Amino acid sequence: MSEEKDKAIYSADHCLSCTSCMSSCPVMEATQEYRGPKLVGPAHSRMHFSQEDYEDSLDFCSNCKSCDRACPSGVAVSTLNMLQRGEYYRTHPHKQRDQMLAHGEDMGKLVRSLPFGAACANLGMKIGKSLGVFGMLGIAGKRDMPSYASQSFYSWFKGYKQQPSDKKVVFFPGCFINDNEPQVGIAFVKVMQKNGYEVLVDQKFNCCGSPMVVTGYLDEAKEHAHNNVARILEWKAKGIPVIACCTSCSLMLKEEYGELFGEDEMHEAGANVYDAFEYLAIMEEKGELNTSFKEVKESLMYHVPCHLKSQGFGTPAKDILEEVPGVSVELADAGCCGISGNFGFKDDKYEISMKVGAKLFERINISQADEVICDCGTCRMQINHGTQVKPCHPIEILAKAYGE
Amino acid sequence: MEKATVVVVGGGATGVGILRDLAMRGVDVMLVEKQDLVNGASSRYHGLLHSGGRYAVKDQEAAKECIIENTILRKIGKSCVEASGGMFICLDIDREQDPTYEEQWVQGCKDSGIEARQISLDEAFRLEPLLSRHVVSAYLVPDAAIDGFRMSWQNVDSAKRYGGRLKTYTEVIGVITENGTVKGVKVRDYFSGEEYEIACDILVNAAGGWAGELAQLAGLEVGVQPDKGTLLAFNQRLTSHVVNRLHKSSDGDIFVPHGSITILGTTSMSVPSAEDTSTAREEVEKLMSIGEKTFEHLRDCRMLRAFAGSRPLYIPPGGSLGRGASRGFAIVDHEKQDGLKGMFTIVGGKFTTYRLMAEKMADAVAAKLGNTEPCRTAEEPLVPEVSEADKKAARKYFPAYGTDLAATRLGPERFARVTETLKNNPEKRELLCECENVTVGEVEEMAKELSSFRINDIRRRTRLGMGTCQANFCALRSASVFARVGRDEGAKDSLGQMKEFLQGRWKGIRPVLLGRTIRETEMTRALYELSFNVNGHRIGGDKE
Amino acid sequence: MKHTDVIVIGSGLAGLTAALASARQGKSVTLLSYGSSSLSLNSGLIDFLGYDDSHKAVKSPREGIMGLPETHPYSKIGMEEIAEAVDFFRDFAKEYHMPYHGSLDKQILVPTAVGTLKPTCLAPHSLAGSESLEGKKKIVVAGIRGLKDFYADIMVENLKKSLGDDLAYETIEIETPLTGGRDITTLDVARWLDTPEGVDSFSKQLLAYKGKKDTAVIVPQVLGTKGHACYLTVSSRIETDIVETTGLPPSTNGLRLNAMFRQALRDNNVEIVENTKVIGSKCEGKACKCVIAEAGVREKTYTADKYILATGGFYSGGITMRSFDQPEEPIFHLPVYSVKGEENWSNEQLFSDKPQGYAKTGIMTDETLRPVDEQGQHVLENVFVVGRDLGGYDLCFEHSGNGVALASGYKAAKM
Fold it and tell me: DSSP code of A364?
């Protein structure tokens, strides 16, 4: 019974129709085509009984979750939207680009299975872009697709010798860090080593499913959830937490599984998952964080990803990095970057995504900071695309502070 | 002087049923109602179209009538009936209390011709995930939800096609008799106060809870005991089926999913007057404590409001009050009973069998008039249906999940007009009521009706203001639309209309002013009292 | 466990004020916030007292406040602090580019979206209705084509009653490029007016009234989202008084005020933790040791020397009532005052000549704003209660909500 009432669909009952979500929705600010959060998920949840139908403007929800955070009543607005979207695609065909955008993990695996796969794929994407192939597929032609790293994180990890320890954590790299930005995962491993932790990986994990949820592959995402939840619980039984550096991955593993699918194990597993800096902050509270930092003379501008804000633990990366001698951190505080996972990769959403990000781009462009930091991989891509600045993950700065 | 062969008094289900039946038999008939349609019990009930399952043990005759009428109403009133199906659930406490009841009930259904199919508990929880896990057995029956207002209104629409006439907000204040024969009625216009007479040969008293008072106007006595039932409306569909407890019928054990909401009812309490539609905290508590046996999380669910209506229980001459009063219906020929020619009273009964009651009444009236036309109300649909093709074509102009609902509310002609409006004027697609998905175009259509005197009249025809926010947003919007297009002079008083509309919502909110309902009220008052100052607005004018 | 001098729970007007005033005194402050705060629904007008208990209009809020019973929050706060809070707010508003007019000594009457006038004490230029409407001979009500929730026709109908039908009234409709999509809100129009093209187009469409000193133009709350910049530009271009009304949410002016506060909090190094619901506390004796907040799937503890409770009463879940007559304050389990009995809980009329009983539900405090029990004894020494969490007043009836929020938030910071 308890699990039933915990499902997102029942949270619609808490909606007062107050419009807080509408005032906070970045997509509404950028386009008149989206009806707005309260009028889609919560309002329609009362109307589904009446007929088979679909709200066309639901397509514009980017799942950035600004509405959920704005809601004074705890309505899982964006999740209601995603459930509705998933319902639609049960009976309607997907666009070809959705297939691609939802399955970055498969693409990554394919690339890794080929000799010189990464280099070829990167070249292919460049050519594809110049020939307008992406545009034809429905992918924003103006955007670079994330390029593959020459060596994946998992492959690097296999060859890396760690100091063994009784204190262990499992690292969940997620597709983007594994395939595209392994340096983030590498920095994480080194940071944990400096704190006397041994990092484990578990290649039986799947993609967290976030890209599938937002493109309406709900059943597939549920399969991933079942697999990942089983893995997390197995680690939990051994007393080992699972940690992610990507905030969309951690949000999905921690909270969204439970909200979307409402199974008891999902809530239980979620409690064994941490965001990297959330975990470091907990270590610090216990006095276990290694704080013998070297000086890093950098002023940082920090874009806090939406999916980190949703986790409700504040901005521990700022607090920790500010302890590093020479480091100053300023919050960009300029709202959503606009890309929201694969939203900004869709050709018909590209302009909206850039409009949403404009405030952040402007803030970064006029800022005097040495470097921009951000926990989320796709946010970093968007910042790079919108400003030409190349941001890094805060864990990379921390690794620097440890002399790595 | 206005004239009709038959005047029917009372715009509840029975009255409109008689209006339609007689009109279809070619009788010149007029219905007068002191308020809007279904001001009494016909809208103030849980909106259950009984399968008869509820009467299967206690009253098999009623059960048989129910299942027959249930089948007929599904056929003639498709757009009023939501064929949700019903579920009877037996809880562990029910079985403990009376271990033999379930068996009797199954047999009773069988004997009454009601199909009751037992389902597994897994199936029951799959169909109704929020059900208490204390359920020990479950059956499916052909219960359904029925919209009392729409059903009544469509009866009127149908009657109008046959020449039947309707006057709402027209109260009967006298019965005119001459030499022991009814000659007409004296009426008063609710708004203007104007009094006038309507001549008739036959007067049918279908005033429900007010039948006794009407009879008194003719110097007669009709024993009617108003029996008040209180109900709760919840913000969401908690169930997809009508859910009944499988035990000896008692208060508060039926949940009816009604469009976007759920209604829980009902209590039973004798009251002196049918005007008493007050609801008390105590009744709310009682309903909640019974309801949470079926749905354990009921207290976490948002209540929209409480409301009450009075069943008119008939007490035959020399009959007793209270439990002894019959829940069946009775037709009194006052010529036979009291020696007054040309007057009948019909009283009692239940919504599900309104058509049957109307048929019996119309038979008696027709016999007096020498009219031999047969009753056709069971065959002909109330209103033609909106075609699937029309709905499909209209889909792009209506809000998502709004086309079918609008089609059932509006019927084919109005639906065609509204579709045309939305098609040609995209700005009229604006959602005026965001909770119940009602467009400006539809509200305008209804606001223009001659029978729309107040926003509340539009509300009953559209569901405007009946959802989550209880008019927080649409009170301002509808007042403006009504002021602009309403035909009645009263529509121009936008502030008065707005306040009256919100006051109507408040009446139902007050008894449930706890939990999240308070939050919504805080918003209502912050908007209208604080931001719009509608309470102290005279400040700039005469009030210092 | 992170420790700051002050923790403020809640980011409505009372919480924002408390946080800012605390920070300005050099305290380190953590603001724990859940939801985007009620300011998007709030007119952002600072009413102090519009009506007395018998529903008589109050001419001078200062005098009205002096006459309130001692159970009223204002009586606890005291006139001196109320006046200081007004100065504090006016200075802040000026510094952040949306100066507020008015004082405690008289009411400004602000036109509303239904054409009534609402009394308030402090209002930005654009909403300072009666100041601009004084002595006008003609009122132009300018609607926006396609804008939901602004109805020029009923405004005029009711303005005639409020301002007198001897004035000339005209309604016009302004065109925007926003039509053709979803229903348009005032916020959409205000964002359009944040752009140079928007201001140009809007001002041009009002040029017919340029320089007409006897005319005022009334518009919905659309003059930009950023302080009073847009108001200044438009006024200087049309050289005619332009007045905004209150309206249904989203309230642009509330959002302007919210943005100003947020900027000021950042400038004063207040740490704002978003999306975290405080669900409990640990207390020893009469001291709160920490508060516990939901941080997604787990709980997080915050400690401070002082805690300011600004959770917004019933509306925001700061006070809950699951069963009749049993209101609760879920974080500190403070004693909650409420009237008992169905007959006292609410009035038969929604818009009534007396306050609604339920609305007075809240926490009683002493003059330091520390919560007290029925005997008037302190329950906790380092917890302070502000805004709508306070008991003993019906803010909608009195028109006093933002005034109490501001004054109590300010005073709690000083304690």
Answer: H
